[in-house]
Write a structure and sequence with these properties.
Shape: elongated
Order of helices and strands: HHEEEHHHEEHEEEHEHEEEHE
Strand content: 15-25%
Number of domains: 2
Radius of gyration: 36 Å
Distance between the termini: 130 Å
Strand order of the largest sheet: 1-2-3-5-4
Amino acid sequence: MLQKRCISCLLLLFVFCIPAFATEEVFLPPIEEVPERSDTVTAAPAVDVTTAFDAGPALPAPSPSALIVGTEFARINWTDDYVEASGQAVAPTGKEKTAQGKLLARRGAIVDLQRNLLEAIQGVRVDAKTTMTDFMANDTVKTEVQGLIKGVEISDASWDGEIYTVTGRVKLDKVRTAVLPGLPKAPGQKPVPPTPPAGKIGASGLLIDATHLTLIPAMIFRVVDENGKEVYGIDFVDAERFLASGLCDYHTNLAYAKGAPRIASTPIVAKAVRTVAPQNVDLVISNADAAKVRGSSYDFRIPCRVTVVKR
């Protein structure tokens, strides 16, 4: 009996004394007064569209004798090798003079730019018989072109308070690469001959004067002699050089073209006899000039060192 009372006393002592040894009082810092909830939502700061959508670095101006074909909003520069287009849009009704309206106007201008760019690319003449519209029936070519347009780099942008205007370019080397899978006959890989030292070269390139003819520029064309035998065309060039710079560059000024770096300092200057009707894309040169081209010790045709001048 005494033993049971001792055990009960110990249990009571344990229950009342343990909290004093097992825990310490924790002092928390005072909680600051929570501010009253407001129904007013603080507006996010407006986006500075001036800096958020700056255009890329300024692109070089067209060459002095550039051959540019197109309209006010879409054009092909056959000299500097690019397709350029512009797009315009205004802010939606009710959002004029606001940052959001300016953003939406820019977005609309880019869509307009892409539409105009597509029209310009579709109008590029590939050869005497086809344009890019024909080649875009090929799904691979169509996908490549759509990718180019979607990724167009904005080269210039302006906002006059009402109309947003953007300008963008696509290099023609990318268009040539896109069209390559659709070509019935693609250029092959050829060893490019080294350019001979200055003073030890007979002909450094070919300059064709077609200023007196109605010539239609194209990515692929042929130069034939008076007998119809081909002197220059896609069969004579290296594929890599063709994709990079095209078969030729077109100019509108004969004097300027004679000093163009592409054909160097001593080109063969051939006056075109006529174009090949009815497309007027291919050129005919005299048999004498054709013989000079074929007889050149330096085959400038492989690296595409050819310039054509048209009015």
